[in-house]
Design a protein that fits this description.
The chain is built from no helices and 8 strands. It is an all-beta fold.
Length: about 130
């Protein structure tokens, strides 16, 4: 569940002000206790996700061309992204994020997959 950084105050004395959100706030399906180890920073930037293949064992194997994704948030321990197709959760991946002079490349594993109403998938992954 995506928890906003701030939520409207319900207290009449502070009504209209935005107050910091607390862990586990939210409504509807998916609300519950926040289990993340670090704060997510919202971003919208393109990325490329590649499956880690036998390339590490066989240098002659063709490299995975990658799946284009839209990164929606990043933290010290993981990343959230949107993808057009569902990806297997039982394999390791490498994500490349960034444009211009700033780049991030890291191994990860997908830990959450949620289908969106538009047919795309929101995925959460943990760096490993």
């Amino acid at each position: 569940m995506i928890t906003p950084a701030t939520t409207p105050s319900a207290d009449p004395a502070t009504r209209g002000r935005l107050m910091p959100a607390t862990a586990g706030t939210g409504t509807g399906a998916g609300s519950g206790i926040e289990r993340r180890r670090s704060t997510r920073q919202p971003v919208i930037t393109p990325g490329v996700l590649r499956a880690v293949t036998e390339l590490e064992q066989d240098p002659t194997a063709p490299p995975d061309p990658g799946q284009k994704v839209m990164v929606t948030d990043v933290s010290l321990h993981g990343v959230g992204f949107r993808c057009d197709q569902v990806l297997p959760t039982d394999r390791a991946y490498v994500i490349e994020i960034g444009v211009g002079p700033l780049h991030l490349t890291s191994r990860l594993r997908i830990v959450r997959v949620r289908r969106r109403p538009d047919g795309a998938f929101d995925m959460g992954a943990e760096f490993c």
